[in-house]
Specification:
Low-confidence stretches: none
CATH superfamily: Cyclic phosphodiesterase
CATH topology: Cyclic Phosphodiesterase, Chain: A
CATH class: Alpha Beta
Number of helices: 4
Order of helices and strands: EHEHEEHEHEEE
Number of domains: 1
Structural class: alpha+beta
Strand content: 35-45%
Largest sheet: 4 strands, antiparallel
Number of strands: 8
CATH architecture: Alpha-Beta Complex
Distance between the termini: 29 Å
Strand order of the largest sheet: 2-1-7-8
Helix content: 25-40%
Mean pLDDT: 95
Radius of gyration: 16 Å
Length: about 180
């Protein structure tokens, strides 16, 4: 099965992100960010496949039990080149440090696979990706910038999403207090 490790975005920030993703997809016919119907999230570890999920669940559970939630902000927009538009995540120093500790724990799992940006992630909350191009980027950029997101949130969960029939579903959420 295919999984991804994320921090779920909750509350009004979740509603803002999911509504914006849906409106951008509908208004500009760019569906890359919504086609697999992911819940609003910040990616902590990019996709991987395993049948040994119980090992990983135990690592995440132990990690969350021994670490406390930290703060971060969603504030404004940015892009990667002209093919990804996202809400900027401003992590606290504590969030950066906890993420590094978490990646170090994941690296102890022998079967875990690693990609180019794993462990050196640029925290963000996607709005649109994959099917944006130079022809529609500016129009989408102007649209999303009509409303500036500004949310104070907690990095208080590490969640496994599982790809089921082409849709990302919450497999298990682990909380930090």
């Amino acid at each position: 099965m295919k999984y991804i490790i994320v921090c779920l975005i909750k509350g009004k920030a979740k509603q803002f992100n999911e509504t914006l993703m849906s409106n951008v997809a509908k208004n500009f016919n760019v569906n890359g960010a919504v086609e697999r119907k992911p819940p609003s999230h910040i990616t902590l570890k990019y996709g991987f496949e395993t049948d040994e999920i119980k090992d990983l669940e135990q690592v995440i559970e132990n990690f969350c039990e021994s670490n406390k939630k930290t703060k971060y902000k969603l504030n404004g927009f940015d892009s990667f080149d002209k093919n990804v538009i996202f809400i900027k995540v401003e992590p606290s120093n504590e969030m950066i440090n906890i993420h590094k500790k978490f990646i170090n724990e994941l690296k102890k799992i022998k079967w875990m696979t690693w990609k180019k940006f794993d462990g050196n992630v640029h925290f963000h909350a996607s709005v649109a990706h994959s099917d944006i191009n130079e022809n529609n980027f500016d129009e989408i950029w102007n649209y999303v910038n009509q409303n500036k997101p500004k949310f104070d949130l907690f990095f208080d969960n590490i969640t496994l999403l599982k790809l089921i029939d082409g849709v990302w579903k919450v497999h298990k959420e682990f909380l930090m207090y």
